[in-house]
Design goal:
The chain is α+β, with helices and mostly antiparallel strands and 131 residues long. The chain is built from four helices and seven strands, in the order H-E-E-E-E-H-E-H-E-E-H. Strands 1, 2, 3, 4, 5, 6 and 7 form a seven-stranded antiparallel beta sheet that branches. A hairpin with a 4-residue loop joins strand 6 and strand 7.
């Protein structure tokens, strides 16, 4: 599968990409409602967490209190790679940005405060360029 494990190459090859959508985190007591296509689901004892486009949550009257931008790191990171999450979360934290990371099989996806998503993208792009 050629997934990358080397932290230096992971950071240099991140190619962060900001999705144009707005995403929200919500929870339901059963399956996702009709018309809602989650990009992330997490089964917890308290319910099923869904990360969905804001317009879908609004149409389904799902409650939420956090609107996020979604940044995908285009590098194919190995699931057992060490340090990438810490590096990106640390760079964003230094700027006072929260970061909710979800690892997919091929890529990592970062959910950051929507109104600061462009700023977060710039921080990540600068991180890929060695000083």
């Amino acid at each position: 599968m050629n997934a990358e494990r080397d932290l230096t190459r992971l950071i240099a090859g991140m190619r962060p990409e900001l999705d144009a959508g707005r995403y929200v985190f919500t929870t339901v007591d059963g399956p996702a409602p009709a018309g809602v296509a989650p990009v992330v689901t997490v089964a917890e004892a308290e319910g099923l967490t869904l990360v969905v486009r804001q317009e879908e949550a609004d149409a389904a009257s799902l409650p939420y209190d956090y609107v996020a931008g979604r940044i995908t790191l285009r590098v194919h990171s190995a699931l057992d790679a060490v340090g990438l999450t810490a590096a990106v979360a640390g760079a964003l934290a230094a700027a006072g940005l929260s970061c909710n990371v979800v690892a997919g099989f091929h890529h990592d996806h970062l959910f950051v405060e929507y109104v600061r998503a462009e700023e977060a993208l710039g921080i990540l792009e600068r991180l890929t360029t060695p000083s």
